[in-house]
Amino acid sequence: MLTRRFTRLALSAALVTAAGAGLLSTGSAHAVGISTVGGQITRSEVLARAQSWVDEGVWYSQQGTYSDSNGSYRPDCSGYVSMSWHLGQSRTTWTLPGVSAQLGSFDDLKPGDALDRYNPATAQYDTHVILFAGWVDGAHTSANIYTESQSGTQASRKTYSRSYLNSQNYVGFRYNNIVDASPTSYPDPASLPTGTLVKASNDPTVKLMISGAGLAVSGSDVTPDGYDMSKVVTVDDAKFWALPSSLPAGTVVHDQGGGPNRYVIVGGAALPITGAEWTADGYSTRPDMGVPTSWLNAATAASLPAGTVVHDQGGGANRYVIVGGAALPITGSEWTADGYSIRPDMGVPGAWLASAQQTVLPTGTLVTGQSGGDPSIYVMVNNSALPITGSEWTADGYAGQALMGVPETWLGAAVAKPLADRTVVKDVSGANATVHVMAGGKAVALSGADYTALHYDAAPLVAAPGTWLAAAAARPAPADGTLLVSPDSATVWLVTGHGGKKALTAADFGPGKYDLAKVVTVPTALTASLPTVTS
Description:
Blueprint: E1 2-3, E2 23-26, E3 41-42, H1 43-56, E4 65-68, E5 71-73, H2 77-84, E6 100-102, E7 114-117, E8 129-135, E9 142-147, E10 156-161, H3 162-167, E11 170-175, E12 178-179, E13 197-200, E14 206-210, E15 213-217, H4 219-225, E16 233-235, H5 237-241, E17 252-255, E18 262-266, E19 269-273, H6 275-280, E20 288-291, H7 293-301, E21 309-312, E22 319-323, E23 326-330, H8 332-337, E24 345-348, H9 350-358, E25 366-369, E26 376-381, E27 384-387, H10 390-395, E28 403-406, H11 408-416, E29 424-427, E30 435-439, E31 442-446, H12 448-453, E32 461-464, H13 466-474, E33 483-485, E34 492-496, E35 500-504, E36 520-521, H14 524-529
Parallel strand pairs: 2-4, 3-12, 13-16, 17-20, 21-24, 25-28, 29-32, 33-36
Antiparallel strand pairs: 1-26, 4-5, 6-11, 7-8, 7-11, 8-9, 9-10, 13-14, 14-15, 17-18, 18-19, 21-22, 22-23, 25-26, 26-27, 29-30, 30-31, 33-34, 34-35
C-alpha cells in the first residue's frame, strides 16, 4: 500500500515563444481606459482591458500579434497579461516578474494582479500566467480569473478554487504601476442596500445585492422575478468583480420567481428545508430572502465543499465531515485529535443530512486517513476502499488527482468492505486486459465470450489498482455465503465450508431466506472447480 509521501511533481513547462513577426488579426473594439503605455493604470482599467479580449473572442496563439485599439500584443497567456497591464511589449511568463512585485499570500491579491505558475523542475516561472479578477467569496476559497489558456480556446473569464491554484504552484504578482483609484467615481456595491441591482461599467453582467454579496441575474430571471432593469446602478468595477457570489452561511432563501420551497445556504450550496424543519429548527425566525431563480438553481445543484463539518440543526451530538457529497461520521476521539474541532461546525437540515449519510463517495475518489494513523492511500470503488501501491501511484495517474482526508474509523470500515458482488472490474493501468466480475471478494476472470454471454457487457466497467485486482483474482474461492450460478445449469450454489458448494432448491428462497437478487452469474469453470458438499 502506498504511504503518504507528498512529493511535489515536476510540472511540464509550456513553451512560451517570443513575439512572432506576423499580424494575426485586428480587433474593432474602442479603446479601453485612459492609461498610457507603461504608465500608471487603475485596477478597473486592467479588468476592462482584459474583458475587451473576452468580448472580442480573441483566439489563443503564440505566433504573431493581435491588434486592436488597446495595442498589439501576442495572444497567449503572458501577452494577455501584458495587454491588460498596458505594457510596452508582450512579455513572457518568466519576464513578467521583472515589472511586478511578488505577493506574500493569496490573501494579498487584488483585482488586476497576476498569478504566475512556478515550475519546480526548472525553478522558473515558465508554465502559465493568469489575471486575478477577484474572490468569489469572502472566505477566499475560489477566485475569478481571466486567461488565454491554450490553442483552440479564446480569452475567457473562469473560476478556479484556491486549492487548485495552490496545488499548481501559482504565485501572486502585482504590477509596479498599478493603482487602486478608479478613473470614475462609482459607488462601492457593498454600501448599497439589499435588493439593489448593480453592474460594472465594463461588463453587461447584472447582480442583485443581498447581505453584501452579488448574485448574478440572468436574462431569464428578469420577467418572472420582477426585476426592473431601468434601476441598475453602475458601481466600481474592481469592487463589483470582488463581490462574494455566495450568501453568508445560515441565510434562508426562496425563489424570487415564486414557490413555497425554502432553503438554507451552507458553503455556497442551497439545502432544502422540509415543512417540519421550518419551525422546529428555528428557520422561520430568520429573514427569508428572495434570490434570482437561475442563481438558486445553481446553488441547489451545488455540493458542500469537501472538509465542511456539519451537524443536524435539529439537535444531536453527532458530527460529520463532507467529502464528495457524502457525510462521513466523526467519532468522539477523532473530533479533537484530527483537527475537526477547530473548523466551523455548520448546522444543516436533518432530512438533507440523512440523505448525505446515505450518499456513496464517487468511484475514483482518492482517500487517506485524516489523522495519518493509516498512512496508506486508497481509491474508492463502489463504496469500498482499495489500496494503491507506491509503483501505481504515479504510473497509473493517481498522483494528479485530489487526495481527500477522511475519518480513520470510517476509512477502516471502507477498507474492510469487500467490493460488491457483480461489480465488473478491469486493471486501471491496462497491463492486464482481462475483465473480472466480483463474487464474494474474489475477482472472477471473464473471457471475451463470457463477458458478452453472461451480459456483463451491459454493466458499468470500473477501474481498480492492478495489484489489488491480482490479489482478488488469486483468491481460491468466493467467501462462504456467496450465491453462484453458471450457464451449464439452473442450479444455484451456496459457497460454504471454506470454498465448497452446496446446491439450493426453490424452497431455500423467499422472505427470511436466500435472495435470488444476490445470485452472481459466473463462468462454469469456477463452479466446476468447487467441491460439492451435502451438509
